[in-house]
From TrEMBL:
Domain AMP-dependent synthetase/ligase: 25-393
GO biological process assignments: fatty acid metabolic process
Organism: Mycobacterium arosiense ATCC BAA-1401 = DSM 45069
This protein's UniProt keywords: Ligase
PANTHER family: ACYL-COA SYNTHETASE, MEDIUM-CHAIN ACYL-COA LIGASE ACSF2, MITOCHONDRIAL
Protein name (Swiss-Prot/TrEMBL): ATP-dependent acyl-CoA ligase
Domain of life: Bacteria
GO function term, MF aspect, one: medium-chain fatty acid-CoA ligase activity
Family note: Belongs to the ATP-dependent AMP-binding enzyme family.
Length: 545
């Protein structure tokens, strides 16, 4: 079955040929003193951001950043992160947002695949970069945000480690006449998506992808200049960019961005800033719903909350309790938002809304034939306009073509469409794992676990979490060496990002395989949690974050 786009809620067309620089310059000229962002309570105005981005662009040119270079942003959310992200398209360079929980092979693969020549790094994360320098031949400069001891710099002439303060002064290095800015339809950023049959892939997206996707979010929330948006979403996350950063550039509103989500403090933060809109990712809404009821629940300033689809049975109950309108969206790194529940139209609890104006959506069988209404199949989509979805996977043309087979992008997700064209997400067809709003590459997770000398083989898989989404289980075959669950968990903590750490470990004698030797993870998923599965939470294993 296919779904026709619904355009009733669209207030205006996206800025077809606009760039991030044009959007920011407009607000800097008309409302320079208005605060566009509060990042962990640090205020940043449109005028300050425009000026600092211009200065940073000149400084990056002076450091040798060339058109087509990739610059990794491996840093905590802060005003400097935004400044550099906005500066890079001005000089023809690509931004590479990197998850700050990454370490080891997770981090090395992304920086290596992106061919990053410069890395902007928070001081607390510097050691993770320095220990990988031998694996990053393209990297020539590391810019450190925050104070770092001189002794931390490596004794090498190939890579220079500098304070990011150098970006605050271009020493007269004006970009006019020297920079080659990216066009609206050229790849501007590499956003990595979790691997399924291989390592994570770099998704090339243009400024038009970013702006048009954010425009759909803005119109879905019915947001405008007077609104204040709130979200505890890191800037490296696509939801943070499309749901908080870009709406401020499009509408001139203010976005409040917290580094970390706190269930107990969330509503206090919303009240402090008088937030009228909120971007919630992963299980945030369900975690807030689990809080004890309070007389203040219905007195929130919030009007609209954007979130992933939630269970139908609690949708209206959440709206009534908090006095908000829940509008749901569905998308992927390669194409988002694909569907959206318009805030001005009827809500269908449990669904992800209808196709956005920029996508056609179908649900198909294994032969790419439409399934009947209400029947589960794979969700596929294609754009109705150019450059509103990804430009391809970096260096992986075959993967790009395979994902776009028969001229439709195959999401790897299962869903169904009702008679009115509303999409209902059912499950993931692929082996990727999603936990706490983060996609986890099972391939990279398995490689990290098997790096332990006592581990012969590992299969990582999702198991249902009581908070929604997934918890992580690993089925492990040991070699001749002896190993306890706690010892293996110690190894995992050292080499795996916190969000990707397994909760469950099961030592097994063998893994189920098909005729070609491929591990049949669906059988492991069917087994779920067995009596022999070790649960780190039940065992009282404590992780220091």
């Amino acid at each position: 079955m296919s779904a026709e786009p619904s355009v009733a809620y669209m207030q205006h067309e996206p800025r077809d040929h606009y760039t991030l620089e044009v959007l920011l310059a407009q607000h800097a000229a008309t409302t320079p003193d208005k605060v566009c962002y509060y990042i962990d309570d640090v205020a940043l105005t449109f005028g300050e951001l425009h000026s600092s981005a211009d200065t940073a662009a000149g400084a990056l040119l002076g450091l040798g950043v060339q058109p087509g270079d990739s610059v990794a942003l491996f840093a905590d959310s802060c005003p400097q992160w935004l400044t550099i992200w906005l500066a890079l398209p001005r000089i023809g360079a690509l931004s590479v947002p990197v998850n700050t929980m990454f370490k080891g092979e997770f981090l090395a693969h992304q920086l290596r695949d992106a061919a990053a020549s410069v890395a902007v790094v928070s001081a607390r994360l510097l050691d993770r970069i320095l220990e990988l320098l031998d694996e990053l031949p393209k990297l020539h400069t590391v810019l450190v945000l925050g104070e770092v001891a001189d002794a931390a710099a490596p004794a090498t002439s190939r890579v220079r480690v500098l304070s990011a303060e150098v970006l605050s002064s271009s020493d007269g290095c004006a970009i006019t006449g020297r920079a080659v800015p990216l066009a609206w339809n050229e790849p501007a950023s590499l956003i990595y998506t979790s691997g399924t049959t291989g390592p994570s892939k770099g998704v090339m997206v243009s400024q038009h992808y970013l702006i048009s996707g954010a425009q759909v979010v803005v119109d879905a929330g019915n947001w405008s200049e007077p609104d204040v948006l709130f979200g505890a979403v890191p800037l490296f996350h696509g939801s943070g960019l499309l749901g908080l950063v870009l709406p401020a550039l499009i509408t001139g509103c203010t976005s409040v961005i917290d580094k970390q989500f706190s269930v107990s403090a969330c509503w206090d933060r919303v009240r402090k800033y008088g937030a009228t809109g909120m971007m919630a990712v992963g299980p945030m809404i369900m975690m807030l719903w689990s809080l004890p009821e309070s007389d203040d629940d219905s007195r929130l300033p919030l009007q609209v909350v954007l979130a992933a689809p939630i269970p139908a049975e609690v949708h209206h109950a959440i709206e009534k309790r908090y006095g908000v309108r829940l509008t749901t969206i569905y998308g992927l790194t390669e194409a988002q938002p694909i569907t959206v529940m318009p805030v001005t139209g009827p809500a269908v609890p449990g669904s992800a809304g209808k196709a956005s104006p920029y996508f056609e959506v179908r649900v198909v069988d294994d032969n790419d034939e439409d399934v009947a209404t209400g029947v589960v199949g794979e969700i596929v989509c294609r754009p109705t306009r150019p450059h509103v979805m990804f430009e391809g996977y970096r260096g992986r043309e075959a993967d790009t073509l395979n994902q776009m087979r028969n001229l439709w992008f195959h999401t790897g997700d299962l869903g169904r469409l009702d008679a009115q064209g509303y999409l209902f997400f059912v499950d993931r067809k692929k082996d990727a794992i999603r936990r706490r709003g983060e996609n986890i590459s099972s391939v990279e997770l398995e490689r990290s676990v098997t790096a332990h000398p006592a581990v012969q083989e590992c299969a990582a898989l999702p198991v249902p979490s009581e908070l929604g989404e997934d918890d992580v289980k690993i089925a492990v075959i040991l070699g001749d060496a002896q190993l306890t669950h706690e010892e293996l968990m110690d190894h995992c903590v050292a080499v795996i990002p916190y969000f990707a750490l397994p909760r469950y470990i099961e030592f097994v004698d063998r893994l189920p395989r098909n005729a070609t030797g491929r591990v049949q993870k669906f059988l492991l998923r069917e087994q779920g949690i067995t009596p022999s599965t070790w649960d780190r939470e039940a065992a009282g294993y404590v992780i220091q974050r």
